[in-house]
C-alpha cells in the first residue's frame, strides 16, 4: 500500500552532544496558540502475555541514558507523527498500539536505579498498562499535519522517568470522532528514529490485516548479551581506536568561522521533494554500478567538503550502524554514531564513489562502543591534540526503512519547502526519508553559516550534482559551476594546520583572554603543520611566568564552541613582549624563559640565554 507522507522525526545528538543548557527552545506562536480540542479523554490500555526479564543495558541504551540524564528533555527526546488510514476506528488504533507493546520488549522496558545513580540494568515487564490521550476535535485546522507535529513536540518537553515511565507518550488526534493522526513523543532510551519507523510499519500492518514480518532482530537484552561476548568487546575496543585516529588527524570542525560559535542553534528546516533528483540518483547508480545509498552519500560528502573547503568530509551517519541483519529492524535505541571520514582529494566523482563504500563500511563496523570509554578517549585525545571535536555534519538516511510511496511517480520535479525549527547541536543535519520514486530530504543548516537562499541552494545543488553524474563522471574541481554552491570564503589570516582550518589571530585572542591579558603572539611553525605561541612573562595581571602546561590548560578551558581555534603545538615563554609585537622575529630575539608542548608532565628546559633561531 502507498505509504502516507509523515512529519519527520527528529533524532537528537547520539554520541557527542554539547553541554546541557537551561532554558530550552522558545515556544513558537503556533505552539502557544494550538487549537483546543472539543474534548480530551485518557484511555488506559492494559497489556499482558509477556515474560519478565532483566539484564544489563546495551551500549546504545547507556549512551542515550547518559544524554537523557544530562541534557534538556526537549533536546534529547524524539517524536513522530503517524497518519491514520482513512476509515480506521479509534478502538482499532488502540488495539494495534497494544499489540505493538506486547510484540516488542523495548516498549515494556524500564531502567531501575537508585536516586542519583545512572541506570545500568533494564527490566522487561510481563504485563502492565499505558495511556492514550484522545484529542477530539469538531474539525481540524487546514494544516492538520503541522498541528499533530506540534502536539507531539509539546509532549517532548517533559523528562521521562527512566525507572517507571512507559517509553511512549501517545496522543490520538481525531476529527469529528474519526482518528487522523497518532502524535507521540518517545524516550530515547527505548527507541530511536529507526525503531519508530519499524513500529509505524508494524502498526500499519496490524491496522490493515497484513502479516507481520517474523521477529528476527535482536531484543535489547539479546543485544546486550552479544555485546558482552569476547567478540563484542573486541569490536568495541576497535571502534575506540578507529574514532581516536579520526579525532587525532581529521578536521576538528567541518564548519568554522566567526558564525560557528555556541553549541546549540535554533535551526529552521528546509525540505526537498524531487522526482528529478530520484531519477538522477537511479541513473548514477545504473551507470556506475554503485548502490543508490552510496551514490547519495558520495554526492553529499562531495558537496559538504566543497562548501566547507575541507579535504576530508567527517560526518556522523547514525542510522548506518544498523547494517547488521539483526539490527536493521531492531526496536531498540541503537543510537550510536557511525563516524565517516571520506578523503575527497581525488579528481572526480567516480573516483570518490569508488572510495566511499569502503569508508562507509569502515564507519559502520566501528559504530558500537562503550560511550563512557569513548568520552574518556575524546577528552584525552582532544586535550593532547589541543582541539575540541565538533559533530558538525550529520546525515541520517532512513530511506531503507520506508516503503516506496507507490509504483507510479507522484510528486514535483523539484520543490523546496519549510518545516519547523529545531534546537540542534549541529551545523548541518540532513534526514533522507525517501530516495525513490521521490527524493525527499529534510535539511537543517545553521543560519549563522547558511543564509536561507544558501540552504535552498545546497539542496538544489545536490540534485544538480546527481543529474551531472548521471550523464558522466564529474570533475570535483568543477563543483561550483555544476552545482551553483560556492566554497565558504575565509579571511587572509586563515591557514590549514594539522588537518584543520585555523585563524592564528583567533588563537592569540583566545590565549590572551585565557591568561588574563598576557601579551601573546601566535604563528605557524617552520614545518607548517602546527602553531607556536609566544607568551610574554611579566605582562597582564601576573608577573610570574606561566608554565607551558598552565598555558595549555587555560586555553583548553575556553575552547568549546570555538571552531578555528587549535592549540599550539609549542608554547614559548619569553621575558616581556617586544616592541614590534606583531613580528615573529622580534619575539624570537626575546630572552627565553621556558618552552614546552604543555601536554607532557616533564619539566621543560628553563635556559634563560637561548633563542629559537
What characteristics describe this protein?
alpha+beta; 21 strands; five-stranded mixed beta sheet; 17 helices; single chain
- Low-pLDDT segments: 1-27, 603-613
E-strand count: 21
Largest sheet: 5 strands, mixed
User: Which quaternary structure do these chains form?
Assistant: single chain
Distance between the termini: 75 Å
How large a portion of the residues is in β-strands, by DSSP E?
Answer: 15-25%
Major sheet: arrangement of strands: 1-6-7-8-3
**Count the helices. How many?**
17
The whole-angstrom Rg is 26 Å
A few lines on this structure:
The protein is an alpha+beta fold and 613 residues long. It has helices at 29-32, 59-70, 73-76, 90-103, 144-154, 193-208, 220-227, 230-249, 275-288, 292-308, 349-365, 371-385, 452-471, 479-483, 504-514, 548-558, 584-588; strands at residues 39-47, 53-56, 78-83, 109-110, 121-124, 128-137, 168-175, 178-186, 265-274, 312-316, 339-343, 393-397, 415-424, 428-434, 439-445, 495-497, 500-502, 520-524, 531-537, 570-575, 592-596.
